[in-house]
Amino acid sequence: MGAAPMAWVLWSRYLTMCPTDPGWPDRDRFVLSAGHGSMLLYGLLHLAGYSVSLDDIRSFRQWESRTPGHPEPFATPGVEATTGPLGQGAGNSVGMAIAERALRARFPGLVDHRVFALVSDGDLMEGVCCEAASLAGQLGLGRLVWLYDQNDVTLDGPASLSFSVEDVAARHRALGWHVQTVADGNHDLDGIDAAIAGAVAETERPSLIVVKTTIGYGAPTKAGKAAAHGAPLGAEEAAAAKAALGLDPETFFAVPAGVRERCAERAGEGEAARSAWYGRLERARTEAPEQAAELERRLGNGLPEGWDEGLPAFGPGDRLATRDASGKAMNALAARIPEFFGGDADLSCSTKTALVGFGSQSQATRAAATSTTESASTRWRPRQTESPTTAGSAPSLPRSSVLPTTCAPRCGSRRFPGLPVVYVWTHDSVGVGEDGPTHQPVEHLMSLRVMPNLHVVRPADANETVEAWRHALRRTEGPTALVLTRQKVPVLTTPNGPPVSSAAVTCSGNRIPPGRRW
Amino acid sequence: MGAAPMAWVLWSRYLTMCPTDPGWPDRDRFVLSAGHGSMLLYGLLHLAGYSVSLDDIRSFRQWESRTPGHPEPFATPGVEATTGPLGQGAGNSVGMAIAERALRARFPGLVDHRVFALVSDGDLMEGVCCEAASLAGQLGLGRLVWLYDQNDVTLDGPASLSFSVEDVAARHRALGWHVQTVADGNHDLDGIDAAIAGAVAETERPSLIVVKTTIGYGAPTKAGKAAAHGAPLGAEEAAAAKAALGLDPETFFAVPAGVRERCAERAGEGEAARSAWYGRLERARTEAPEQAAELERRLGNGLPEGWDEGLPAFGPGDRLATRDASGKAMNALAARIPEFFGGDADLSCSTKTALVGFGSQSQATRAAATSTTESASTRWRPRQTESPTTAGSAPSLPRSSVLPTTCAPRCGSRRFPGLPVVYVWTHDSVGVGEDGPTHQPVEHLMSLRVMPNLHVVRPADANETVEAWRHALRRTEGPTALVLTRQKVPVLTTPNGPPVSSAAVTCSGNRIPPGRRW
């Protein structure tokens, strides 16, 4: 209720989307990082004209409904990211903005959108959110806008209990962000509008808009209190809130006619934007056929012809670490798959994930990002345009590639939308005794193997490492983890051996829905 | 080599320690958060007179040596925290400072020390470090001082590749810290001294000292370069560096006489400080016997008499969630164990970890912290004075208590020093379907069970939950995780049933050294 005004201004005036074609590639992205406020998102989707009915909304938090307690792309058309674990949506939005910029440089006129996220106090307390914000500032992601719902209330009480000293606006300025504040986010729709306009006009830095709001705005006794955070208002308070907001307390699940009208207009504008985009794609097929074909290949989830022909082969006399074999395979793949790119933790010389000669993502080298970028300990190939935009794992990376559990929660989130992210984890286990026990993650392999839908491959030698990469690149329905040695191991197999079998990659069942339905 | 000047000023002029009694309770703490620079710490320990010989230093990174690649309290006298995974040591230092303040308020005259940490660029890039710094600012931890070795170099190259936009000093000011900068950390020992004096004089806010240094200072061709980060200099460069620093290139493992002299003086000062403290304790035995006895009980690792007599009992007719039973057990324990306290994620009303009537840690309520503090989803009982000071997991907490993997790496670090931290993880598994799949951590239980030395207890009902708490509180040699339901479950057992068996708590062997040796 407190975030509704800012959400309404954004959705009714700025967000370009096409509810009848939720997956239209060049739509703006909206991420509700504060996923516990999912009802706000479901309400917006319903009003905007997505396939979320009032009956779906009546089924809130019910088994197999389109409206689970926290948003899921596979469950609900128009939901862009799995959110709920705080900070994850904000991190995802940074990944989406990185992808947008890289694709915009590669496909000018065909990729040109913005990424908006609604973030909460709880998001901004999260370390992962600070890492993501630091990276966004570092890269100067001018298409990224965070609306910060500053209601100063947590589930346990006023945020002053735990979060009153920190100056979030000043922190983001220190991270290189453009920062604005709206003092009365409950009523000042013009102020919200002006701030979003200012954020959109800022093209060199990511934008944070601090919007001061009242949680449960309109509820006569619970507004501004923790009681409005995690529990229903109750019938009496809900009726009183409706009355206070000028609505009929006796009418349920109803939308004022004026709202319906404005939403229908907005849907029409979205349809027009989508049609114009398909018109540009059609023209590109004639005027820039290579570019159009390349974009369509990526949208169609395909790999380039001959993508795996440069992969290395190793003879029985060879002896090398599987991290080294992986590095050779990655460089061969990068030369043939332009969308092969990823994030790193300043450790590529140790993890052997540097892509030599391909350049790094930075403020100055945007075009480089279109081919292959960033030395990486985690790395993904966009299987479809949505993949890079939702992969977003770069800012969620562990700084240390030797401790996979640091990013296991992100890995866990990845499996829900079924994104084909590839994780490269090196310095496996007891082979790194000199580094001391903190660097011997003996239990992590088994921890990863019990994660549903994550394929875990621990190749025995260099040729199996190449096959593991082939498996990871072919996979479309979920993430793959490669677990690699630091120390040299002998080559035991011949090249181009049997493919990785599904029995070899996981010991748990795959009962997660296979990616988004829409 | 770049951090040596600041470390020398700190150790030779400020750090109060007693090398012949490394565990003396009221020593200052020094945490090398940048644990990959372990040789600096081993050198300091040797010079200061700890039981780290030149032979130990010659055994650097060798099997079972006292000088593993990353520092470990169980391996080396004087090492306060397991570090290496970046950000963890910084987080630990915040926990130590919280404990110092709480204990100082409870035991005036007997607890009165400072916590220093040396942090690197890589530490400060970590989200966990930002969370810890935010909490330190929130609580106004005036005894905490971070020396930031800003050498602008990562393993992969200049930090400008990834970390050039962010203004770390401004960020920490935004978090409520006192910030100073030393422009020439290679030579300006007086400037370092003045900054540390300023930090010590600041009692209301934690202090960050940004010390600009040159990595590999003194090495003629590798100084200031990534080549000096993760690999030995090599014989030729090492000889040239010695020559450049005015040392004899042909002399190995030698310490100048003047250094030895100053270190011996410093050790004498530490002995005197330790003796004075034991004198105060002896006086307290006469003048404040209750207080002295209480401190000695805690130092001796004991529980108060009758600590578990107030624990609740449930009859077969009862039906309640194990999170609720846990909450009742925790409040009963808190009433009898004053050192029972912990950290929380603003979710205590959901995890049922609120300790009703005991107050929260804050800038204004320091004394409250001495009894029992903070509603908590993770919670520890200090089994010895070192435990709260090294537990330090408060700032490392996940913000969401329902996703244990978010804090699994911290949990992993806890097992090395063998700290008896208790983790409370609620909303177990498939019982929370309405919240959506992100909130159904079906694989986490097994992931936790494979972690060596972590006891994982998943009680079936309320009485087993009480026994689980009894087990966790009795345990001294490592952490315990309690996995609890959100939904109501029937009581199946009678109260005071058999204790938790070790076979029930883990499926992996315990082959981790049992806590620190010194």
Question: Could you explain how this protein is built, in words?
Answer:
Two copies of one chain form a homodimer. Chain A is of the alpha/beta class and 518 residues long. Chain A has 19 helices and 14 strands. The first copy, chain A, has a five-stranded parallel beta sheet, with helices on both faces. A five-stranded mixed beta sheet of chain A has the order 9-10-11-13-12. In chain A, helix 18 links the parallel strand 12 and strand 13. In chain A, helix 1 crosses helix 8 and helix 10 packs across helix 11. Chain A is globular, with a radius of gyration of 24 Å. Chains A and B meet through helix 6, helix 7, helix 13 and helix 16 of A and helix 6, helix 7, helix 13 and helix 16 of B.
Write the layout of secondary structure elements.
Two copies of one chain form a homodimer.
Chain A: H1 4-13, E1 29-32, H2 38-48, H3 54-58, H4 88-106, E2 115-120, H5 121-125, H6 127-139, E3 144-150, E4 153-154, E5 157-158, H7 168-174, E6 178-182, H8 189-201, E7 207-212, H9 235-244, H10 257-287, H11 289-299, E8 319-320, H12 322-336, E9 341-343, H13 348-351, H14 368-371, E10 378-380, H15 386-391, H16 408-415, E11 421-425, H17 444-449, E12 455-457, H18 462-474, E13 480-483, E14 489-490, H19 502-505
Parallel strand pairs in A: 1-2, 2-3, 3-7, 6-7, 11-13, 12-13
Antiparallel strand pairs in A: 4-5, 8-14, 9-10, 10-11
